[in-house]
Specification:
This protein is mainly beta. It folds into two domains: 1-99, no CATH class; 113-187, no CATH class. It is built from no helices and twelve strands. A hairpin with a 6-residue loop joins strand 5 (59-63) and strand 6.
């Protein structure tokens, strides 16, 4: 079972590497939404603007140590809902890998790469205000405490289409920028 919660306001779950299963948002019927004020799949506002105002949202995913449910929270103290413990085999005890980032579906319609941009459509190297970012990456440990993420690896499958750049600072901790235009003269 692969469970993805994403801060760009969608939830995705799959169990077979994109072959036949998978669902988005509340089509994932087993996700139990506990907050009627949060709309899974809706836009999160305010929205950052290119080279202008940038806005953050805190996203927290953790396993309830008593019942084993995997919870999604946003902001400082807003619980959104959970995936019940009985959905999981490999995540029954703990996660073995955590992924942050963006994802594009590229069906190569007409044999061409998708024109769908990621983030603002600018590559990671453009940096703050011009590309998407995740910052202060942390993990919830077995004591339900937050600790800094370690051993971060980055991957962009086609750097002519999308890119990622990781870094560290005392203010942002471990962070990375990501994005790209999709189809362009170098990305076919």
């Amino acid at each position: 079972m692969r469970l993805i919660f994403c801060c760009f306001s969608f939830l995705f779950r799959l169990s077979d590497a994109y072959q036949a299963t998978g669902c988005y948002n509340l089509l994932c019927s087993r996700f139990v939404q506990t907050n009627s004020k949060i709309a899974i799949g809706a836009a999160i506002s305010p929205v950052s603007s290119f080279a202008c105002n940038q806005y953050d949202i805190t996203v927290l995913i953790w396993k309830d140590p008593k019942l084993g449910n995997w919870w999604l929270g946003i902001g400082e103290n807003t619980l959104v809902g959970y995936c019940p413990a009985e959905l999981f085999t490999h995540l029954a005890d703990h996660a073995t890998m955590i992924e942050w980032g963006g994802e594009m579906v590229n069906t190569r319609w007409n044999g061409e790469h998708t024109k769908t941009q990621m983030g603002s459509g600018h590559f990671a190297e453009s940096g703050f205000g011009q590309s998407g970012y995740f910052r202060n990456l942390q993990v919830v440990d077995s004591d339900n405490s937050l600790s800094t993420a370690e051993n971060i690896l980055t991957l962009a499958e086609n750097t002519n289409c999308y890119s990622i750049k990781s870094s560290y600072s005392s203010e942002w901790g471990i962070h990375f920028y990501f994005g790209g235009p999709g189809k362009n003269p170098q990305c076919q």
